[in-house]
Amino acid sequence: MDASLFTSMLFATVVAGTPLIIVALGLLVNEKAGVLNLGAEGMMAMGAVAAFAVTHESGNPWLGVAAGVGAGMAMAAIFGVLALTLMANQVASGLALAIFGVGLAAFVGKPYEAVALQAVPPIRIPFIADLPLIGEALYNQQALVYFSWALFWGLLWFLYRSRAGLVLRAVGESPASAHAIGYPVIRIRYLAVLFGGAMAGVGGAFLSVFYTPMWAEGMVAGRGWIALALVVFATWRPLRVMVGAYLFGGVMITQLFIQGSGLQIDFPSQLLSSLPYWATIVVLVAISRNRNTIRLNSPVSLGKPYRPDA
Amino acid sequence: MLELEARAEPSRLMSWASPLLAVALMLAGGLAVFAALGKDPVEGFRVFFLNPVKDLYALSELLLKATPLMLCAIGLAIGFRANVWNIGAEGQFMLGAVAATGVALYFGDSESALVLPAMVLAGAAGGAAWAAIPALLRTRFNANEILVSLMLVYVAQLFVSWLVFGPWKDPDGFNFPQTRMFAEAATLPMVIEGTRLHFGFAIALAALVAGYAFMNRSHAGFRMRVAGEAVDAARYAGFSATRMIWVGLLLGGAAAGLAGMGEVAGPMGQLTDKVASGYGFAAIIVAFVGRLNAFGILLASLLMALLYIGGEQAQQYLNLPNSISMVFQGMLLFFLLGADVFIHYRLRLRRRGA
After folding, report:
1. Three-state SS across chain B?
2. Domain-located, residue A305
3. Does the residue A248 lie in any domain?
4. What pLDDT, on the 0 to 100 scale, is given for residue A156?
5. Contact between A92 and B333 using a beta-carbon 8 Å cutoff
6. Cα–chain-centroid distance for residue A167?
7. Which band of pLDDT confidence, cut at 50, 70 and 90, is reported for residue B264?
8. Containing domain of residue A194, as a range?
9. N or C, fewer C-beta in 10 Å, chain A?
10. Whole-model pTM?
11. Do B321 and A38 touch (CB under 8 A)?
12. DSSP letters along A196-222, please?
């Protein structure tokens, strides 16, 4: 492999992994608080379409990202009302959100299907972007790529070094004890769910405004679900979310490069495109086969409704 | 302030009333949506909710749309009752369609009366085989069936596109992504002449009856219900969780595969890359709104079919994208989940600080 090919593949892998990192880290916070929101796909779709529409109308991609955050949070709020206030089944509520969000996004996005956006130029970090091989790939990137790294470091600090993070994890492990000590369990869970929605919105915005500056129905293409799988794969640890997301980005990009390389590989492109989905299944199997890994690492109250005794 | 208070026991009245309440709220929501879009709400209501039932032909189209929904939903309901979350019916539907298409193309212009029965079996087997993957990975490796079955939807979609863009493409089809039209012997006969309502509808009704018998009258169905409602009791009684996962997924897959077979051998008459069009996902809503029982699913599938056709009508007459169907379908499930809380809780007024 020559150097420029390596650099461009690394660049593309980082780009492809970025929305997964942002969304999966949001979901991780969600799940650390004991709430399982399967609606990521719908929240991402709404984030993507809102960001696209606002960017198109205003010409400002950052207003678009803000709209994506707002849309993701609005979707998450619906889930919150159902699953937290009304104590509905979290699996069913999340599925409903996924179906509804994808449908609503297709509906409101119809007028934007034939429109293209101007590509947003990357931000070049002086000096280190000149490093050989990796400089161009890592440090001449979209702003949201840097944001995903900041989010990672921020979450590491928040979850394991801050008092608020400790409370969040306590709420996920044992809501009854957290309530007994006097923490507002439901309010904390709402905040976690809204954070998950906001990050799903950013991830969606990244797809429609920065990654492929266009909107098409179904463009999220299962990334919301892959992000959910990543959290399991990562056994609820931020570092492994990063590693997993880049692995997935790598799988997606490798198949694209094979398709585009003109290498005379006699393998149909559609079947190559299904590789990331098979990869998701394989890693799920690999990580789940030892029952204890999942049991010891997943937040104890994950998916269980909690109602403080009045 | 208003507060939720646990009921001493679940309200039977509410468990029947909550789907009706959800439908009423969805209709009200629909009026609001039309008004918000600047359409006359009354006109919108008429086009969306009344056009699909205006005459006999419209009703036959409604039953046609309801057919795959009730088939997929009754299969899913069996699994859902035991907390087996197969949400990949969309993919199993496609694999059933693929298997049935394979049989139809293999027999070509044959006029044998065995072609259709072979396609029915192939459809069910194709769907079941696709559902066997999450079943195997769940029982053998503990892999979450929600995520695995969902991933396989995307794989199935890409597989279907490969087939219809590649090896199975109709050589005389002007390069459209579709197979050749099936021969007469490979298409389902009509239930009512002059309509498109095909024999698959009868299969779907039979599946509802079979599903009812399985869930309410068989010991296997009883075990699955216990497992869904009281995990510990099921374990104590020694019911095999592994077997329930297999049964739930295989039956769900087979039913979805049959639905796929019905689409290619019925209204489509060929396989295209748009074969599934969301039936497998909509069936999840049907199963929940139908309260996971056969009669409820019958009603819910008619309602959801109405929403599908209403969307098509809205596209034609109101100039709205037909994805408005999915918005209404999602709203319906939201309202149902919200209304369901009143089965176990009631509202009580309490003064602040009291």
Report:
1. CEEEEECCCCCHHHHHHHHHHHHHHHHHHHHHHHHHCCCCHHHHHHHHHHHHHCCHHHHHHHHHHHHHHHHHHHHHHHHHHCCCCCCCHHHHHHHHHHHHHHHHHHHCCCCCCCHHHHHHHHHHHHHHHHHHHHHHHHHHHCCCHHHHHHHHHHHHHHHHHHHHHCCCCCCCCCCCCECCCCCHHHCCCECCCCCCCECHHHHHHHHHHHHHHHHHHCHHHHHHHHHHHCHHHHHHCCCCHHHHHHHHHHHHHHHHHHHHHHHHHHHHCCCECCCCCCHHHHHHHHHHHCCCCHHHHHHHHHHHHHHHHHHHHHHHHCCCCCCHHHHHHHHHHHHHHHHHHHHHEEEEECCCCC
2. no
3. yes
4. 96
5. yes
6. 23
7. very high
8. 3-116+124-297
9. N
10. 0.91
11. no
12. HHHHHHHHHHIIIIIISSB--TTTTTT
Name the residue facing A93 among B4, B161, B337 (closest C-beta): B337
| B2-6/B345-349 β-pairing | antiparallel
Cα angle at B103 between B158 and B214, to 5 degrees? 85
Residue matched to tokens 């990244």: A206
Cβ contact A289–B281 (<8 Å): no
A132-136, B47-51, B186-190, B281-285: least confident range? A132-136
Partner-chain contact B326 A106, CB within 8 Å: yes
Average pLDDT, chain A: 91
Structural domains of chain A, count? 1
B-chain residues within 8 Å CB-CB of A221? 154
- For residue A80, the chain B residues in CB contact (below 8 A) are none
B341 → closest Cβ in A87, A104, A221: A87
Question: Rounded to an integer, what distance in angstroms lies between the CA atom of residue B205 and that of residue B71?
Answer: 8
Contacts of B152 in chain A (CB under 8 A): 277, 281
Banded model confidence at residue B353, pLDDT cuts 50, 70, 90? low
- The mean per-residue pLDDT over the stretch B279-283 comes to 93
pLDDT tens-digit readout, B29-87? 888 888 888 888 888 888 888 989 888 899 999 999 999 999 999 999 999 999 899 99
* Residues in chain A, pLDDT under 70: 1, 262-266, 309-310
Highest-pLDDT range among B47-51, B116-120, B346-350? B116-120
Q: Is A104 left (phi over 0), alpha (psi -120 to 50) or beta?
A: alpha
Q: What is the CATH number of the domain that holds A271?
A: 1.10.3470
Residue A302 located in a structural domain: no
* Closest CA–CA distance from residue B112 to any residue of chain A (Å): 34
Among A99, A278, A281, select the one facing B330 at the smallest CB separation: A99
Cβ separation A284–B137 shorter than 8 A: yes
Q: Specify whether the CB–CB gap between A253 and A12 falls below 8 A.
A: yes
Residue of A nearest to B333 (CA): A96
- Residue A141: enclosing H or E segment and its boundaries? strand A140-141
A270 Cα to chain B: minimum distance (Å): 5
Fold of B40-319: ABC transporter involved in vitamin B12 uptake, BtuC (1.10.3470)
Contacts of B150 in chain A (CB under 8 A): 222, 225
For residue A41, the one-letter residue type is E
Q: Is residue A310 part of a domain?
A: no
Closest to B143 in 3D by CA, of A290, A272, A154:
A290
Give percent above pLDDT 90 in chain B.
Answer: 56
How far B111 CA lies from chain A's nearest CA (Å)?
34
